[in-house]
Fold this sequence. Notes:
Strand content: 15-25%
Structural class: alpha+beta
CATH architecture of the domain at 303-514: Alpha-Beta Complex
CATH superfamily of the domain at 303-514: Valyl/Leucyl/Isoleucyl-tRNA synthetase, editing domain
CATH topology of the domain at 303-514: Isoleucyl-tRNA Synthetase, domain 2
Amino acid sequence: xxxxxxxATAPVTADAAPHRYTxxxxxxxxARWQDFWDAEGTYAAPSPKGDLAGDPEVVARPKKFIxxxxxxxxxxxxxxxxxxxxxxxxxxxxxxxxTGHNVLHTLGFDAFGLPAEQYAxxxxxxxxxxxxxxxxxxxxxxxxxxxxxxxxxxxxxxxxEYYKWTQWIFLQIFNSWxxxxxxxxxxxxxxxxxxESGERAVPGGRAWGELTEGERADVLGEYRLAYASDAPVNWxxxxxxxxxxxxxxxxxxSERGNFPVFKSKLRQxxxxxxxxxxxxxxxLDELDWPEAIKLQQRNWIGRSEGARVDFPIDGxxxxxxxxxxxxxxxxxYMVLAPEHPLVEKFTPGAWPEGxxxxxxxxxxxxxxxxxxxxxxxxxxxxxERQAExxxxxxxxxxxxxxxxxxxxxxxVFIADYVLMGYGTGxxxxxxAGDQRDxxxxxxxxxxxxxxxxPTDGRGTDTSTWEDAFASYDAKIMNSxxxxxxxxxxxxxxxxxxxxxxxxxxGAGRGTVNFRLRDWLFSxxxxxxxxxxxxxxxxxxxxxxxxxxxxxxxxxxxxxxxxTFDPDDADTQPETPLSRNEDWVNVTLDLxxxxxxxxxxxxxxxxxxxxxxxxxxYLDPHNGEQLVDPEIxxxxxxxxxxxxxxxxxxxxxxxxxxxxxxxxxRFWSKVLFDLGHVSSAEPFHKLFNQGMIQxxxxxxxxxxxxxxxxxxxxxxxxxYQGEKVSRLLGKMGKSLKNAVTPDxxxxxxxxxxxxxxxxxxxxxxxxxxxDTRAVVGQFRLLQRLxxxxxxxxxxxxxxxxxxxxDVDEDTLRALHKAIDGVRQDLEGMRFNTAIAKVTELNNxxxxxxxxxxxxxxxxxxxxxxxxxxxxxxxxxxxxxxTDSVVHQDFPVADPAYVVDETVTCVVQIKGKVKARxxxxxxxxxxxxxxxxxxxxxxxxALGGAGIRKVIVRAPKLVNIVPA
Length: 962
């Protein structure tokens, strides 16, 4: 490390106490040490090889890879809630460095996405210009907090040298298929070889050599892990784009702009994440994640065992998936999702004879009824369609299917409570056992057949029922044919028997189903990664070779997608990229001579760049490989306690429980299967920080007013003479309650802000912000400063005495603090660590007089992870020339950690009768003797016999009299 002494350049201000720790002094100290850290590369984490290789001694240490979830560089900048996790990981990373680890801790920016594009549409500013300005502002704010990031490893997802590899990974996925037998992804070339050799039969029965290029592409598209298909999407004509489910409100309108959203089929790219459903479930067990997050992923994946059952209709089948095949005899009608591709095929030209009026919806023909209902359903979101409380609607399509277990003809309806995205998009309706089916059957006067013996006394006459009866404990009834009988069987046995019959008779098969759907991977946007895909004149998709990557975004004159009449569902999106004809239409040589191609004009979703960014941190300047295998193995490879490898600690909000975390796990597993990485999981340990909340003040109109201008008088809150309401909620610019870290740093300094955010409470719970309470941590730092530095002279006041000459109370206070802070920092209990530092600091203040150097230095080391700037300054003032960042964390002397005595409580009949001061090491036998001999205990017993004595040495004795 440099021998430069930044402390020597500290200014002296004219003040009553010129060397008092003030906000001005804090600002000067902090800026100076931040410059020093940058100049010295204090936080550089060496890798075993490559351009970031470094000191072999450091590389040989145990490693720790600590990550924050990618921040998005908002134009609004940071408020004090944003850095909570960043400060926490910084404290933990600093502690790990001080305990002998090689620590990789850095931060990049997830910079593609909708906000910058919206700003571009409004102002004409190129998204890159506004995004880079936002990144620069955010970097400045984060630097002021003293975060110890390895800045050599930082990047943004919008950097072409980064998204080159995002595109490369997409092509790896596109050129792969999932081998169910091997249970892993394999190159698509190996599948082609199987088709060519005849090892694997070509779907349809023809030889591979007989297929045209287009037919081969269609076959491979059914296997590829990235594929294009006509998919039902949320189409918003008023915005001119497809929306994710999260962008659609419960009443079927766009979250932005409040436009109608319709279900439409569009050609879209998809990721076959469903192929990995089982592995995504199984490997959760090996991850150190909060159980709540694991549960959310398990529920989202939604594994369920059941059967697929074929209902014959017009020489074909409608296939349903059911978890209760034992209730097949109770199926009295079927329901298809309105979007189901077979609806039109089975809809006849006229209503069958005997069609009930209530089934037709008042339409003259089935086709009219279906068209009208589809239009109605298309205007609703999936959430609205699934709402339990709403009235059940639907329409008969004019066709009947055959129930395979009893040959009954059951009417086929379409209804919006059935979604194309789950199962097969078709259900067999058993109204006696399902509440939604029950309500639909009542509304449409359909039969309800009791097939599970009620155990609640309602009887088997369903005409008297007020709701469905669902049970996994009751026995089956009214369920038999000439070949199989389920009557009298419990559910589990009945399911097994009917599944065996379905397979034997060819009417179905046992299967596993998942709620998880393939990942819709297209966006009709400009500001995203272009797909490295081109289409030939026959519409066949071709992957660009690696030599043509990155495929950079072209310039466009208009960033907004074309919009349409908001109520016109029969429109198609026109993407911003499609308007740049010179970029879209190209002549390329892909290995078989120059040909004309058309580029893909959708872009990747904003999730793409965050699916693999942990790997880029490892080897950020590698232009030849995704990541060097040796470097990846060093930082993320499997090892004891991490069977699938991954990042050692990943900190971020619980709101990413499903989407980002599931997508990143999927990409990691594909890369692992293909041999590009050694880690099958991206993040081994996950920690979800809570949220910093703030009070929102609203006037009589419900409009938020500036929180900083609200006055509290007599228990009420007032703004400009008007009484306002107060409610604890989120912090944000729109709620007029945001407090920026810049404000707090200016008033108190960054170290105070760091301490306050860490001291507010446990890291994983939400807590309210209170600017008035920040001063408490500022005073802690002032007392710390005064314990080491004379405020008038600026001289260090510590005394150089041997530890043996330090009073025992101080030594006990010191070593208890060391022991407790070490445990708390290891367990990320930063609030209690600060409490222990405060207790030690207060002890030294109370004792008074010069602090022994041996105590002062270790106190500074305890503070260093939490308040690094003031710790660096004091460490240098104490005469050291090396940075405090790389000092060893203090180790407690066990002799001083254990109290000389502890208080033992003696209870009789559960009531405290005496307290004894005993040695911590006292045995159960000796403690029992001491308790029974105590005068207060003897008096309380009054000569009564003793039935039992329960001893929990050294703190409890419980006596039970006879």
